Amino acid sequence: MAAADVLPPEPEDRVLGASTADQVLERWHGFLAESSQLLKAQLDPPALQRRLPARRQLLNPEAEAGSVESASSRLHLASTPLGRVVYSLAASVQEARRCIRAAPELYRAVAVFGEARGVSPDEDSLQTPPELLVEFAQLLPQLRAMRQLLRRVEAVAVNLLRQLAGQQAMQASQGLQGLTRQPLRPVLDVLSELLLLPVHLDGLALENGRLRRTFASYSWIVTQASTPGSALPEVPQAAALKQELQEAAALVQGDAFQICLANICQGAAQEKLEGIREHFLAYFRGRLEEEPCGPVAASQLWLPREALVPWVCCFVLHVRLFTRGRDEVKLLGEAWKMHKKSPSVVLYGRVVWCLGDFVQSYLPELVAEANLKKELEDLSNLRLKQAERLDDGSFIQELKEAPGCGGEDMASI
Length: 413
Prior knowledge:
- This protein has about 425 residues and is mainly α.
- It is about 65% helix and about 0% strand.
- It has a two-stranded antiparallel sheet with strand order 1-2.
- Residues about 1-25, about 45-75, about 290-300, about 345-350 and about 405-413 have low confidence and may be disordered.
- One of its GO terms (cellular component) is endosome.
């Protein structure tokens, strides 16, 4: 028997960092499957029916009769205000899905940066190895593509908010029927998942110390080379390269989510969003009242751990968009009470942020209003405990078994 028949096949995609993080994200995508199917069923554009080949319709007239009738009814619906609202939301949701599908390939370049070099004894030295500088120069196109992707994320998020506000205003003025019973949940699920993209990028950047050190060295070299009278040789198109590095600084330093929040709020500042505030609150409350299997448990509020990550991201955007009130303070207090003992924000790799750390970074005023400041004073120890619980000791075991890391010194850990 050949060796290839004995050994298990190598996985096509290597697991990035702790496998637990990827499993959490996988469970979250599974959790959204039901909402995605519902959205697809409700927001299916009639253009798909019009694209059916004429030959297929001629060969199968009986099979196509039902679809033709369905297309006719949908075309009639598209001429109504309700239909236009639904189809515009469908287009924005599809664009959001494209952004979500395009993100992993771009993020992988950041996740594996510097791994080909392996562990180096002079890793913490002030001098950056030339190999890393060359690798960072090759990474610049990916960073440029990431900035373009984040701009798309911001535009799609603003468009979703604008359309939701327009739908609510039209419903209030014309009394539209059909969008009254939790119609926005699939759309808000997609918006929450869309907001995860900059958070994942922040996690990769914060985890990869080599990337940040190499970026600092590369920026210093470009700055010195573009200075008149410098001893370094002149870099071609140094001004354009310097400008590109300034734009990439926010991504490398882990500020992508902060910038996305600011740009989304700025883009939606001219919109009248107060009409959808109650929809957001109902969505947050509904998500808090769910069990892993899906049924509502009104007596015991709970939220699946993997669903808490996008919940928090969308909640932060909600607080930035609207004036803080008692409802937001109460929701934050309940979420913290339920999940302060659970690892909640899991990024690629081994970066773990608990719920308190996340809201303290992005919503410090709301933390003070919710009287959580004292509980969050010892947040660093809580974060370490959560990371240890999530990792289940596997990271420490890897350090002990890794060659040249001083396994005998790790015995006390």
